Backbone:
């Protein structure tokens, strides 16, 4: 199958998953963009699992890795939405929420990458 089709199919799946999960998470919050934080954390964790499993264990071939990372997770994670929502918090003078949103997304997504790597590399997952 063409790599373009794999990326496109993955993007289709990732966009639907993002819309669904982000709304599901956000329904429990009023002003804080928790839906974006949730998908960014999960997307970072899944990206780490896929990339480290590919690099250290040879779990995924190149086509599957590209479909999952660029296609699915490329549309699932939401840096542009995170940036927009952060700016809106600043415009609304929600300075504490703005800071928490920045720290939450950056620190939790880095933690997700670390956890994914640890599961694959640190625990000797095969």
Residues:
């Amino acid at each position: 199958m063409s790599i373009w089709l794999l990326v496109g199919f993955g993007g289709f799946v990732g966009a639907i998953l993002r819309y669904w999960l982000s709304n599901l998470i956000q329904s429990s919050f009023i002003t804080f963009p928790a839906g974006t934080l949730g998908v960014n954390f999960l997307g970072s964790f899944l990206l780490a699992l896929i990339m480290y499993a590919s690099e250290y264990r040879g779990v995924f071939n190149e086509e599957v890795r590209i479909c999952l990372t660029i296609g699915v997770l490329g549309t699932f994670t939401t840096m542009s939405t995170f940036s927009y929502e952060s700016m809106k918090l600043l415009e609304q003078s929600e300075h504490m929420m703005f800071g928490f949103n920045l720290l939450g997304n950056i620190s939790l997504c880095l933690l997700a990458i670390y956890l994914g790597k640890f599961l694959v590399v640190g625990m000797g997952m095969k």
